[in-house]
Protein backbone atom coordinates (compact mmCIF):
# COMPACT_ATOMS: atom_id res chain seq x y z
CA UNK A 1 0.00 0.00 0.00
CA UNK A 2 1.47 3.36 -1.09
CA UNK A 3 1.54 6.02 1.64
CA UNK A 4 1.16 9.79 1.18
CA UNK A 5 1.83 12.69 3.53
CA UNK A 6 -0.98 15.16 4.22
CA UNK A 7 0.54 17.65 1.77
CA UNK A 8 0.85 14.94 -0.86
CA UNK A 9 -2.77 13.93 -0.35
CA UNK A 10 -3.82 17.47 -1.25
CA UNK A 11 -1.93 17.14 -4.53
CA UNK A 12 -3.49 13.71 -5.13
CA UNK A 13 -6.94 15.28 -4.84
CA UNK A 14 -5.99 18.01 -7.33
CA UNK A 15 -4.67 15.35 -9.71
CA UNK A 16 -7.98 13.52 -9.49
CA UNK A 17 -9.88 16.71 -10.34
CA UNK A 18 -7.62 17.41 -13.34
CA UNK A 19 -8.09 13.88 -14.66
CA UNK A 20 -11.87 14.07 -14.27
CA UNK A 21 -11.91 17.38 -16.15
CA UNK A 22 -9.92 15.81 -18.99
CA UNK A 23 -12.41 12.94 -19.35
CA UNK A 24 -11.06 9.81 -21.03
CA UNK A 25 -7.85 11.60 -22.05
CA UNK A 26 -4.94 12.87 -19.98
CA UNK A 27 -4.34 16.53 -19.02
CA UNK A 28 -1.56 18.11 -21.09
CA UNK A 29 1.74 19.26 -19.61
CA UNK A 30 0.71 22.87 -20.25
CA UNK A 31 -2.50 22.29 -18.28
CA UNK A 32 -0.45 20.83 -15.42
CA UNK A 33 1.85 23.84 -15.34
CA UNK A 34 -1.14 26.15 -15.18
CA UNK A 35 -3.29 24.31 -12.64
CA UNK A 36 -0.74 22.35 -10.60
CA UNK A 37 2.47 24.46 -10.55
CA UNK A 38 3.65 22.87 -7.30
CA UNK A 39 4.41 19.63 -9.19
CA UNK A 40 7.55 19.58 -11.32
CA UNK A 41 7.33 17.21 -14.28
CA UNK A 42 10.80 15.95 -15.20
CA UNK A 43 9.75 13.22 -17.65
CA UNK A 44 6.57 13.11 -19.71
CA UNK A 45 6.01 9.39 -20.16
CA UNK A 46 2.28 9.82 -20.64
CA UNK A 47 2.11 11.33 -24.12
CA UNK A 48 3.51 9.10 -26.83
CA UNK A 49 6.22 10.54 -29.06
CA UNK A 50 9.77 10.02 -30.29
CA UNK A 51 11.93 12.74 -28.64
CA UNK A 52 14.73 12.26 -31.17
CA UNK A 53 12.34 13.07 -34.01
CA UNK A 54 11.30 16.25 -32.19
CA UNK A 55 14.99 17.22 -32.00
CA UNK A 56 15.37 16.59 -35.73
CA UNK A 57 12.29 18.67 -36.56
CA UNK A 58 13.59 21.55 -34.44
CA UNK A 59 16.94 21.50 -36.28
CA UNK A 60 15.18 22.02 -39.60
CA UNK A 61 12.67 24.48 -38.18
CA UNK A 62 15.47 26.62 -36.75
CA UNK A 63 17.38 26.73 -40.05
CA UNK A 64 14.52 26.92 -42.53
CA UNK A 65 11.99 29.04 -40.61
CA UNK A 66 13.48 30.96 -37.69
CA UNK A 67 16.92 31.93 -39.03
CA UNK A 68 15.56 32.61 -42.51
CA UNK A 69 12.81 34.89 -41.22
CA UNK A 70 10.09 32.78 -42.88
CA UNK A 71 8.24 32.51 -39.58
CA UNK A 72 6.27 35.59 -40.66
CA UNK A 73 4.82 33.67 -43.62
CA UNK A 74 3.61 30.89 -41.30
CA UNK A 75 1.92 33.43 -39.05
CA UNK A 76 0.61 35.97 -41.53
CA UNK A 77 -0.39 33.88 -44.54
CA UNK A 78 -3.22 31.39 -44.88
CA UNK A 79 -2.01 27.80 -45.19
CA UNK A 80 -2.75 25.88 -48.37
CA UNK A 81 -6.08 24.19 -48.78
CA UNK A 82 -6.59 20.54 -47.86
CA UNK A 83 -6.26 19.28 -51.43
CA UNK A 84 -2.98 21.13 -52.03
CA UNK A 85 -1.34 19.59 -48.96
CA UNK A 86 -2.64 16.20 -50.13
CA UNK A 87 -0.81 16.75 -53.43
CA UNK A 88 2.41 17.37 -51.48
CA UNK A 89 2.03 14.01 -49.74
CA UNK A 90 0.83 12.08 -52.78
CA UNK A 91 4.14 11.71 -54.60
CA UNK A 92 6.05 10.91 -51.40
CA UNK A 93 3.53 8.27 -50.30
CA UNK A 94 2.99 7.06 -53.88
CA UNK A 95 -0.74 7.45 -53.37
CA UNK A 96 -3.23 9.27 -55.59
CA UNK A 97 -3.82 12.74 -54.10
CA UNK A 98 -7.57 12.28 -54.50
CA UNK A 99 -7.37 9.44 -51.96
CA UNK A 100 -5.71 11.60 -49.26
CA UNK A 101 -7.54 13.68 -46.66
CA UNK A 102 -5.51 15.96 -44.37
CA UNK A 103 -6.67 16.29 -40.77
CA UNK A 104 -6.11 18.65 -37.87
CA UNK A 105 -4.61 15.68 -36.06
CA UNK A 106 -5.82 12.11 -36.53
CA UNK A 107 -8.57 12.78 -33.98
CA UNK A 108 -10.38 15.03 -36.46
CA UNK A 109 -10.26 12.33 -39.12
CA UNK A 110 -11.59 9.71 -36.70
CA UNK A 111 -14.55 11.92 -35.90
CA UNK A 112 -15.15 12.89 -39.53
CA UNK A 113 -15.06 9.31 -40.80
CA UNK A 114 -17.26 7.83 -38.08
CA UNK A 115 -19.78 10.68 -38.18
CA UNK A 116 -20.10 10.67 -41.95
CA UNK A 117 -19.74 7.05 -43.01
CA UNK A 118 -20.85 4.81 -40.13
CA UNK A 119 -24.60 4.47 -40.53
CA UNK A 120 -25.77 1.42 -38.62
CA UNK A 121 -23.32 -0.64 -36.57
CA UNK A 122 -19.65 -0.43 -35.61
CA UNK A 123 -17.42 -3.13 -34.10
CA UNK A 124 -14.56 -1.98 -31.88
CA UNK A 125 -11.88 -4.04 -30.14
CA UNK A 126 -11.40 -3.25 -26.45
CA UNK A 127 -9.29 -2.09 -24.74
CA UNK A 128 -8.54 0.61 -27.30
CA UNK A 129 -8.40 4.35 -27.96
CA UNK A 130 -11.62 5.70 -26.46
CA UNK A 131 -12.48 8.21 -29.22
CA UNK A 132 -13.55 5.38 -31.52
CA UNK A 133 -16.57 4.61 -29.37
CA UNK A 134 -17.05 8.10 -27.94
CA UNK A 135 -17.57 9.62 -31.41
CA UNK A 136 -20.25 7.16 -32.48
CA UNK A 137 -23.46 9.01 -33.36
CA UNK A 138 -26.72 8.38 -31.56
CA UNK A 139 -28.64 5.54 -33.16
CA UNK A 140 -25.53 3.61 -34.25
CA UNK A 141 -25.06 0.28 -32.48
CA UNK A 142 -21.65 -0.43 -30.92
CA UNK A 143 -20.45 -4.03 -30.71
CA UNK A 144 -17.35 -4.64 -28.59
CA UNK A 145 -14.87 -7.39 -29.28
CA UNK A 146 -13.25 -7.93 -25.90
CA UNK A 147 -9.59 -8.87 -26.36
CA UNK A 148 -8.44 -11.69 -24.09
CA UNK A 149 -6.13 -11.03 -21.17
CA UNK A 150 -4.86 -14.59 -21.51
CA UNK A 151 -3.73 -13.68 -25.04
CA UNK A 152 -2.04 -10.49 -23.77
CA UNK A 153 -4.87 -8.47 -25.35
CA UNK A 154 -3.70 -9.45 -28.80
CA UNK A 155 -6.12 -9.97 -31.70
CA UNK A 156 -7.24 -13.53 -32.42
CA UNK A 157 -7.77 -13.14 -36.16
CA UNK A 158 -9.87 -16.29 -36.63
CA UNK A 159 -12.28 -15.41 -33.82
CA UNK A 160 -12.41 -11.81 -34.98
CA UNK A 161 -13.39 -12.69 -38.53
CA UNK A 162 -16.12 -15.02 -37.28
CA UNK A 163 -17.48 -12.38 -34.93
CA UNK A 164 -17.64 -9.78 -37.71
CA UNK A 165 -19.46 -12.27 -39.93
CA UNK A 166 -21.91 -12.92 -37.11
CA UNK A 167 -22.73 -9.27 -36.33
CA UNK A 168 -22.20 -7.87 -39.86
CA UNK A 169 -21.37 -4.28 -38.89
CA UNK A 170 -20.93 -1.62 -41.55
CA UNK A 171 -17.73 -0.38 -39.84
CA UNK A 172 -14.90 -2.15 -38.05
CA UNK A 173 -11.85 -0.58 -36.37
CA UNK A 174 -8.38 -2.04 -35.93
CA UNK A 175 -5.61 0.03 -34.35
CA UNK A 176 -2.30 -1.53 -35.35
CA UNK A 177 -0.30 -1.53 -33.10
CA UNK A 178 -3.12 -1.21 -30.62
CA UNK A 179 -3.40 1.44 -27.93
CA UNK A 180 -3.04 1.00 -24.89
CA UNK A 181 -1.20 -2.33 -25.08
CA UNK A 182 0.91 -2.11 -28.26
CA UNK A 183 -0.15 -5.50 -29.64
CA UNK A 184 0.64 -5.84 -33.35
CA UNK A 185 -1.23 -7.77 -36.05
CA UNK A 186 1.02 -8.79 -38.94
CA UNK A 187 0.31 -7.38 -42.39
CA UNK A 188 -0.58 -10.78 -43.86
CA UNK A 189 -3.24 -11.24 -41.17
CA UNK A 190 -4.70 -7.77 -41.77
CA UNK A 191 -4.86 -8.51 -45.49
CA UNK A 192 -6.69 -11.73 -44.68
CA UNK A 193 -9.22 -9.69 -42.69
CA UNK A 194 -9.68 -7.43 -45.71
CA UNK A 195 -10.09 -10.39 -48.06
CA UNK A 196 -12.65 -12.21 -45.92
CA UNK A 197 -14.64 -9.15 -44.81
CA UNK A 198 -15.25 -7.43 -48.12
CA UNK A 199 -18.94 -7.01 -47.19
CA UNK A 200 -18.00 -4.47 -44.48
CA UNK A 201 -18.46 -0.93 -45.80
CA UNK A 202 -15.65 0.66 -43.78
CA UNK A 203 -12.55 -1.12 -42.52
CA UNK A 204 -10.67 1.49 -40.48
CA UNK A 205 -7.00 0.64 -39.90
CA UNK A 206 -5.38 3.15 -37.55
CA UNK A 207 -1.63 3.14 -38.20
CA UNK A 208 -0.73 5.93 -35.79
CA UNK A 209 1.98 3.77 -34.19
CA UNK A 210 3.06 1.84 -37.29
CA UNK A 211 6.48 3.54 -37.46
CA UNK A 212 7.47 1.62 -34.33
CA UNK A 213 6.39 -1.76 -35.73
CA UNK A 214 8.45 -3.96 -38.02
CA UNK A 215 8.52 -7.40 -39.61
CA UNK A 216 12.14 -7.53 -40.77
CA UNK A 217 15.47 -7.48 -38.97
CA UNK A 218 16.32 -4.04 -40.36
CA UNK A 219 13.14 -2.48 -38.87
CA UNK A 220 11.71 -1.64 -42.29
CA UNK A 221 8.49 0.40 -42.25
CA UNK A 222 5.23 -1.47 -42.82
CA UNK A 223 1.88 -0.04 -43.89
CA UNK A 224 -1.33 -0.90 -45.71
CA UNK A 225 -1.80 2.57 -47.21
CA UNK A 226 -0.93 1.41 -50.73
CA UNK A 227 -3.83 -1.09 -50.71
CA UNK A 228 -6.65 1.49 -50.67
CA UNK A 229 -7.22 1.19 -54.43
CA UNK A 230 -7.34 -2.61 -54.16
CA UNK A 231 -9.74 -2.55 -51.20
CA UNK A 232 -12.26 0.31 -51.63
CA UNK A 233 -13.63 -0.25 -48.12
CA UNK A 234 -10.19 0.32 -46.54
CA UNK A 235 -9.59 3.54 -44.62
CA UNK A 236 -6.05 4.04 -43.28
CA UNK A 237 -5.60 6.73 -40.60
CA UNK A 238 -2.25 8.17 -39.56
CA UNK A 239 -1.36 10.52 -36.73
CA UNK A 240 2.00 12.25 -37.14
CA UNK A 241 2.44 13.28 -33.50
CA UNK A 242 3.62 9.93 -32.13
CA UNK A 243 6.46 9.09 -34.51
CA UNK A 244 7.55 12.68 -35.23
CA UNK A 245 7.07 14.15 -31.75
CA UNK A 246 4.97 17.11 -32.91
CA UNK A 247 1.67 16.73 -31.02
CA UNK A 248 1.36 20.51 -30.67
CA UNK A 249 1.23 21.01 -34.44
CA UNK A 250 -1.88 18.80 -34.94
CA UNK A 251 -1.14 16.91 -38.13
CA UNK A 252 -2.58 13.70 -39.51
CA UNK A 253 -3.92 12.20 -42.71
CA UNK A 254 -6.37 9.59 -43.88
CA UNK A 255 -6.22 7.48 -47.03
CA UNK A 256 -9.57 6.35 -48.38
CA UNK A 257 -11.60 6.06 -51.57
CA UNK A 258 -11.95 9.20 -53.65
CA UNK A 259 -15.70 9.62 -53.04
CA UNK A 260 -15.12 9.72 -49.28
CA UNK A 261 -12.41 12.37 -49.59
CA UNK A 262 -14.64 14.48 -51.83
CA UNK A 263 -17.56 14.11 -49.42
CA UNK A 264 -15.44 15.34 -46.48
CA UNK A 265 -14.01 18.27 -48.43
CA UNK A 266 -17.50 19.25 -49.51
CA UNK A 267 -18.52 19.19 -45.83
CA UNK A 268 -16.25 22.12 -44.99
CA UNK A 269 -12.74 20.78 -44.32
CA UNK A 270 -11.13 23.32 -46.67
CA UNK A 271 -8.68 25.12 -44.37
CA UNK A 272 -8.47 22.76 -41.41
CA UNK A 273 -4.63 22.78 -41.23
CA UNK A 274 -2.45 25.56 -39.85
CA UNK A 275 0.77 26.92 -41.33
CA UNK A 276 2.99 24.93 -38.98
CA UNK A 277 1.27 21.69 -39.99
CA UNK A 278 1.72 22.53 -43.66
CA UNK A 279 5.41 23.25 -43.06
CA UNK A 280 5.74 19.88 -41.35
CA UNK A 281 4.11 18.01 -44.23
CA UNK A 282 6.42 19.73 -46.72
CA UNK A 283 9.41 18.86 -44.53
CA UNK A 284 8.16 15.28 -44.14
CA UNK A 285 8.40 14.77 -47.91
CA UNK A 286 11.98 16.08 -48.24
CA UNK A 287 14.38 13.28 -49.11
CA UNK A 288 17.19 14.43 -46.81
CA UNK A 289 14.80 14.77 -43.87
CA UNK A 290 13.31 11.33 -44.56
CA UNK A 291 16.76 9.72 -44.51
CA UNK A 292 17.72 11.38 -41.23
CA UNK A 293 14.33 10.63 -39.71
CA UNK A 294 14.64 6.92 -40.48
CA UNK A 295 17.91 6.82 -38.56
CA UNK A 296 16.38 8.36 -35.43
CA UNK A 297 13.31 6.13 -35.86
CA UNK A 298 15.47 3.01 -35.74
CA UNK A 299 17.59 4.39 -32.89
CA UNK A 300 14.42 4.98 -30.90
CA UNK A 301 13.05 1.50 -31.64
CA UNK A 302 16.29 -0.14 -30.45
CA UNK A 303 16.34 1.91 -27.25
CA UNK A 304 12.65 1.18 -26.65
CA UNK A 305 13.30 -2.56 -26.94
CA UNK A 306 16.09 -2.22 -24.36
CA UNK A 307 13.75 -0.21 -22.12
CA UNK A 308 11.04 -2.86 -22.31
CA UNK A 309 13.58 -5.59 -21.53
CA UNK A 310 14.69 -3.71 -18.40
CA UNK A 311 11.11 -3.12 -17.32
CA UNK A 312 10.44 -6.85 -17.47
CA UNK A 313 13.19 -7.42 -14.87
CA UNK A 314 11.38 -5.34 -12.25
CA UNK A 315 9.40 -7.19 -9.55
CA UNK A 316 5.75 -6.56 -8.79
CA UNK A 317 4.65 -5.70 -12.32
CA UNK A 318 3.65 -7.51 -15.50
CA UNK A 319 4.77 -5.92 -18.76
CA UNK A 320 2.63 -6.86 -21.75
CA UNK A 321 4.22 -7.47 -25.18
CA UNK A 322 4.33 -4.31 -27.30
CA UNK A 323 5.47 -3.25 -30.74
CA UNK A 324 4.71 0.41 -30.11
CA UNK A 325 6.59 3.14 -28.22
CA UNK A 326 4.81 2.33 -24.98
CA UNK A 327 3.92 -0.62 -22.79
CA UNK A 328 0.87 -1.67 -20.84
CA UNK A 329 1.86 -2.59 -17.29
CA UNK A 330 -0.26 -4.47 -14.78
CA UNK A 331 0.50 -3.65 -11.16
CA UNK A 332 0.59 -6.63 -8.85
CA UNK A 333 0.62 -7.12 -5.06
CA UNK A 334 -2.39 -4.89 -4.42
CA UNK A 335 -0.87 -1.66 -5.77
CA UNK A 336 -3.56 0.76 -6.99
CA UNK A 337 -2.80 2.37 -10.33
CA UNK A 338 -3.99 5.84 -9.26
CA UNK A 339 -1.75 5.75 -6.17
CA UNK A 340 1.22 4.50 -8.17
CA UNK A 341 0.81 7.20 -10.85
CA UNK A 342 0.43 9.90 -8.19
CA UNK A 343 3.50 8.76 -6.24
CA UNK A 344 5.67 8.67 -9.37
CA UNK A 345 4.55 12.17 -10.32
CA UNK A 346 4.85 13.77 -6.87
CA UNK A 347 8.08 12.09 -5.73
CA UNK A 348 9.97 11.56 -8.99
CA UNK A 349 8.37 13.98 -11.45
CA UNK A 350 7.40 11.22 -13.88
CA UNK A 351 4.05 11.65 -15.61
CA UNK A 352 2.41 8.42 -16.78
CA UNK A 353 -1.13 7.36 -17.59
CA UNK A 354 -3.43 5.32 -15.46
CA UNK A 355 -5.73 3.04 -17.45
CA UNK A 356 -8.65 2.98 -15.01
CA UNK A 357 -10.92 4.51 -17.65
CA UNK A 358 -10.09 1.94 -20.34
CA UNK A 359 -13.03 -0.39 -20.84
CA UNK A 360 -11.94 -3.97 -21.38
CA UNK A 361 -9.12 -3.92 -18.82
CA UNK A 362 -9.64 -5.86 -15.60
CA UNK A 363 -7.05 -5.08 -12.95
CA UNK A 364 -4.71 -2.24 -12.04
CA UNK A 365 -3.01 -0.97 -15.20
CA UNK A 366 -0.78 1.90 -16.28
CA UNK A 367 0.54 2.84 -19.71
CA UNK A 368 4.17 3.92 -19.85
CA UNK A 369 5.80 5.64 -22.83
CA UNK A 370 9.40 5.20 -23.91
CA UNK A 371 11.50 8.37 -23.93
CA UNK A 372 15.19 9.12 -24.52
CA UNK A 373 17.83 6.72 -23.16
CA UNK A 374 18.64 9.06 -20.26
CA UNK A 375 14.98 9.53 -19.38
CA UNK A 376 14.28 5.80 -19.65
CA UNK A 377 17.12 5.06 -17.23
CA UNK A 378 15.62 7.52 -14.76
CA UNK A 379 12.18 5.93 -15.18
CA UNK A 380 13.60 2.46 -14.44
CA UNK A 381 15.37 3.69 -11.31
CA UNK A 382 12.26 5.50 -10.08
CA UNK A 383 9.91 2.58 -10.75
CA UNK A 384 12.25 0.25 -8.89
CA UNK A 385 12.46 2.62 -5.92
CA UNK A 386 8.68 3.08 -5.83
CA UNK A 387 8.05 -0.68 -5.94
CA UNK A 388 10.67 -1.38 -3.26
CA UNK A 389 9.20 1.30 -1.00
CA UNK A 390 5.78 -0.32 -1.35
CA UNK A 391 7.26 -3.70 -0.41
CA UNK A 392 8.91 -2.20 2.68
CA UNK A 393 5.66 -0.53 3.74
CA UNK A 394 3.80 -3.82 3.34
CA UNK A 395 6.37 -5.62 5.51
CA UNK A 396 6.12 -2.90 8.18
CA UNK A 397 2.33 -3.15 8.15
CA UNK A 398 2.49 -6.93 8.49
CA UNK A 399 4.93 -6.66 11.39
CA UNK A 400 3.01 -3.98 13.28
CA UNK A 401 -0.31 -5.59 12.46
TrEMBL record:
Pfam families (alphabetical): Aminotran_1_2 (PF00155)
KW Transferase (keyword) present: yes
Enzyme Commission number(s) of this protein: 2.6.1.-
Domain of life: Bacteria
Class of the enzyme per the UniProt entry, highest EC level: transferase
Gene3D superfamilies per record: Aspartate Aminotransferase, domain 1, Type I PLP-dependent aspartate aminotransferase-like (Major domain)
Amino-acid biosynthesis recorded as keyword: no
One Gene Ontology molecular-function label: transaminase activity
Keywords: Aminotransferase, Pyridoxal phosphate, Transferase
InterPro entries recorded: Aminotransferase_I/II_large (IPR004839), NHTrfase_class1_PyrdxlP-BS (IPR004838), PyrdxlP-dep_Trfase (IPR015424), PyrdxlP-dep_Trfase_major (IPR015421), PyrdxlP-dep_Trfase_small (IPR015422)
Needed co-factor(s): pyridoxal 5'-phosphate
Similarity remark: Belongs to the class-I pyridoxal-phosphate-dependent aminotransferase family.
Protein name per UniProt: Aminotransferase
Source species: Pedobacter frigoris
Amino acid sequence: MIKFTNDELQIVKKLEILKNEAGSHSPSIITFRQKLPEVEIKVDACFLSNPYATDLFLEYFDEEILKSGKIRDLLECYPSQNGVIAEILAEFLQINAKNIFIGNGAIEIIQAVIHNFTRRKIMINIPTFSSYYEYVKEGVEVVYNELSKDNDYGLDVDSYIELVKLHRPDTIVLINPNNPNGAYTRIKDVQRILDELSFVDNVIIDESFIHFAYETENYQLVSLAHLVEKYPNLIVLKSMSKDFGIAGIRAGYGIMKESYVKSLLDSGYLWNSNGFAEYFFRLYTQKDFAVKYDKVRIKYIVETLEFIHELKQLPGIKVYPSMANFVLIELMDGIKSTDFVSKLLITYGIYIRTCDDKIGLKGQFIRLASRSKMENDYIIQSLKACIEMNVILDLVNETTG
